[in-house]
């Protein structure tokens, strides 16, 4: 089942049961779901099968970053499970991204392949500590252009950079933005955040939302509030 909704709910749970309990309250016509490192490490590919069985398009967020052949093989493995989207780190460089893209093409696999730029949990001081003197926005732009030249269909960035990327990479280049924080939720460990409506207005194509929904007292009420703000179906 496919959806027009920009919402991707991050199922960051410690067990298959907990993740499916949440998924069973969601409607695959109105959102996609994301499986990340914790859930996949605990439950393996069975969580992907279970979510596909419920009609969801799945973003497998394992942020691959390794030598080109290893990443290409991992991306192939993800795509062969039929996931809608998979990501890798743009910081792995051009040859790594090109190898992944070419592997998908060789096997006629059509999973969306996107690259993480600068994690939304980082700010300028964190970059300086690892030797990057550019601002987060400048570094995101540099990595996004490299990702685009390397055949990626889009990037993960913060919504704060989405407008800039719309100008330099174009509207069709996907801007998948986590660090989304509605007015009613805590910042948690995120640094470069934005509210849902503002994030869409800034040029995000997809919004990744986890704890503001999954850790809310009433997750469905929180999701409905976000959908109402965005004027999309619940
Ligand atoms: O690739 C991601 O999805 C990702 C990249 C990034 O820069 N920041 C980021 O928060 N994420 C993921 O997006 C989700 C955000 O969750 P919340 O902060 O709970 O809304 C988590 O699953 C993160 O792993």
UniProtKB/TrEMBL annotation:
Pathway: Pyrimidine metabolism; UMP biosynthesis via de novo pathway; UMP from orotate: step 2/2. The active site is at 61 (for ompdecase activity), 63 (proton donor), 63 (for ompdecase activity), 66 (for ompdecase activity). GO terms for molecular function: orotidine-5'-phosphate decarboxylase activity. Residues 6-226 form the Orotidine 5'-phosphate decarboxylase domain. One of its GO terms (cellular component) is cytosol. Its EC number is 4.1.1.23. Keywords: Decarboxylase, Lyase, Pyrimidine biosynthesis. Substrate binds at residues 12, 34, 61-70, 120, 181, 190, 210-211. Belongs to the OMP decarboxylase family. Type 1 subfamily. Homodimer. HAMAP family: OMPdecase_type1_B. This is Orotidine 5'-phosphate decarboxylase.
């Amino acid at each position: 089942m496919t959806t027009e909704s920009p919402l991707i709910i991050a199922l960051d749970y410690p067990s298959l049961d907990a993740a499916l309990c949440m998924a069973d309250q969601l409607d695959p016509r109105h959102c996609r779901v994301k499986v990340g490192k914790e859930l996949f490490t605990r439950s393996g590919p069975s969580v992907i099968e279970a979510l596909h069985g419920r009609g969801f398009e799945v973003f497998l967020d394992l942020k691959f970053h390794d030598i080109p052949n290893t990443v290409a093989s991992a991306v192939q493995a993800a795509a062969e499970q039929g996931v809608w989207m998979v990501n890798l780190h743009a910081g792995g460089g051009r040859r790594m991204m090109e190898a992944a893209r070419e592997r998908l093409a060789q096997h006629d696999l059509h999973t969306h392949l996107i690259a993480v730029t600068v994690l939304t949990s980082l700010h300028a001081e964190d970059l300086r500590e690892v030797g990057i003197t550019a601002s987060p926005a400048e570094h995101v732009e540099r990595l996004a252009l490299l990702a685009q030249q390397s055949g990626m269909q889009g990037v993960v960035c913060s919504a704060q950079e989405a407008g800039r990327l719309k100008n330099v990479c174009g509207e069709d280049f996907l801007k998948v933005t986590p660090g989304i924080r509605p007015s009613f939720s805590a910042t948690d460990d995120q640094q470069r955040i934005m509210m849902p409506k503002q994030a869409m207005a800034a040029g995000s194509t997809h919004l990744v939302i986890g704890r503001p929904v999954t850790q809310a007292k009433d997750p469905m009420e929180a999701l409905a509030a976000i959908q109402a703000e965005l004027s999309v179906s619940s």
